[in-house]
């Protein structure tokens, strides 16, 4: 992994082309690609960076995936409007309609938790100072990525020249359940893309927690919504934090966020990994998994909607050239003798450095609920036709990898659903939370 200093040096040097890249938008915001990139290899599976279009309806954007695609692991198809039992594991297909679960709605007579808010700044951070800022065209989200290129001969290595050091502020919202006794050790859920400006619908989540806790379906938990550092994808602070496949984000949370949570919300958080859950959507969803993967001594329960189990890690890491894609699948490029991954360590080997993590690592004590839609993201940036940017395929491959290693997981494939689909979240969130917390027993003191 490159050091922060080398990252910043390279992007400052590359900053000379920033204005030209932004100007290239011509004042119009580019749209996500969501189709087979023009430079893609979609015809020869024996060649590097192959994109398999089997089972895709390319008349829609993103393409609609067939849940019966023979490339996907077997799944149980449920009657429309129903969900898998909160005690069952494995792969399930739901939809095409997604009725709202009543437990996501406020009901009279249900006690409400309280929410405490505070702000964090990069000036006070150890691990994420300075921050990372990418120059996009005004009001054009991710526009710089539309003009990015990849390294010669390596379509997995996006070159982003418009990023530079910067600062960030973020809000943190802490939900404390009704009836919490100050000073009592409590289990908790921490989720990314939180805070007042985050992508997560905190009102929906906190209302659901009110209902489930009141009904005794989950333990009384604290929920911590942490805002991202800003922007999205390669070259952004959000991408740097969430898409990097390492223990850094979990360590930042442990040493810089949780002490402030305890101080500002007047709570005492458990140190038991069985009582600590992570949650996220899209890139913060893969970050939720990464927190538990690299630090299972800290977290044992994970919930993610449309997790970005694809090659979004930036800057490129030669030890994990496929980024989060390598949790479940091999790097799609030409094999290169380099390093062999053993969980969180690497050793010299004559084998490829693109081997996947889960199949080559002893099973970890992680419980994982995750979901993808049949119209989830598909190569949104045409500039990186790397064979590793199909969100649905990535999640299907993850289900296969988890099953092969006998993990405890529940995977939901949602028909008639897009990326982090609001209807699917409203239908599944209560059951997903109940499944994640199933079997929790607090440590006796």
From TrEMBL:
It holds the Pfam family Esterase. Keywords: Signal. Residues 1-23 form the signal peptide. InterPro entries: AB_hydrolase_fold, Esterase-like, Mycobacterial_A85_antigen. The keyword Signal applies. It comes from the Bacteria. PANTHER family: ENTEROCHELIN ESTERASE-RELATED (PTHR48098), IRON(III) ENTEROBACTIN ESTERASE (PTHR48098:SF3). This is Esterase family protein. It comes from Lichenicola cladoniae.
């Amino acid at each position: 992994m490159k050091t922060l200093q080398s990252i910043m040096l390279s992007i400052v040097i590359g900053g000379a082309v920033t204005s030209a890249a932004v100007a290239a938008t011509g004042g119009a915001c580019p749209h996500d690609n969501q189709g087979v990139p023009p430079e893609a290899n979609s015809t020869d599976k024996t060649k590097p960076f192959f994109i398999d279009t089997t089972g895709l309806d390319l008349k829609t954007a993103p393409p609609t995936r067939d849940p019966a695609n023979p490339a996907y692991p077997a799944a149980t198809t449920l009657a429309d409007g129903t969900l898998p039992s909160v005690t069952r594991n494995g792969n399930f297909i739901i939809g095409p309609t997604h009725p709202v679960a009543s437990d996501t709605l406020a009901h009279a007579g249900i006690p409400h938790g309280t929410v405490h808010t505070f702000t964090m700044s990069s000036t006070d951070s150890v691990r994420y100072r300075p921050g990372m800022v990418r120059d996009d065209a005004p009001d054009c989200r991710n526009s710089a990525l539309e003009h990015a290129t990849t390294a010669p001969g390596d379509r997995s290595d996006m070159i982003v020249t418009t990023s530079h050091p910067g600062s960030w502020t973020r809000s943190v919202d802490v939900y404390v359940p009704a009836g919490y006794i100050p000073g009592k050790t409590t289990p908790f859920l921490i989720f990314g893309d939180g805070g007042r400006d985050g992508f997560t619908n905190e009102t929906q989540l906190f209302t659901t927690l009110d209902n489930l806790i009141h009904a005794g379906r989950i333990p009384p938990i604290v929920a911590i919504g942490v805002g991202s550092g800003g922007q999205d994808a390669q070259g952004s602070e959000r991408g740097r934090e969430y898409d990097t496949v390492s223990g850094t984000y979990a360590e930042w949370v442990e040493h810089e966020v949780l002490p402030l949570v305890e101080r500002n919300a007047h709570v005492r958080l458990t140190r038991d990994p069985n009582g600590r859950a992570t949650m996220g959507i899209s890139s913060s969803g893969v970050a939720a998994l990464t927190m538990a993967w690299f630090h299972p001594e800290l977290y044992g329960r994970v919930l993610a909607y449309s997790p970005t189990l694809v090659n979004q890690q930036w800057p490129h890491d030669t030890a994990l050239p496929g980024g989060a894609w390598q949790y479940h699948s091999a790097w799609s490029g030409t094999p290169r003798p380099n390093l062999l991954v053993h969980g969180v360590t690497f050793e010299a080997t004559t084998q490829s450095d693109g081997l996947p993590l889960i199949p080559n690592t002893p099973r970890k004590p992680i419980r994982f609920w995750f979901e993808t839609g049949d119209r989830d993201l598909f190569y949104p940036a045409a500039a990186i036709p790397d064979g590793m940017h199909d969100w649905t395929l990535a999640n299907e491959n993850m289900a296969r990898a988890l099953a092969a290693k006998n993990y405890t997981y529940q995977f939901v494939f949602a028909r008639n659903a897009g990326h982090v689909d609001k209807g699917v979240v409203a239908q599944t969130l209560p059951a997903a939370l109940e499944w994640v917390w199933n079997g929790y027993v607090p440590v006796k003191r």
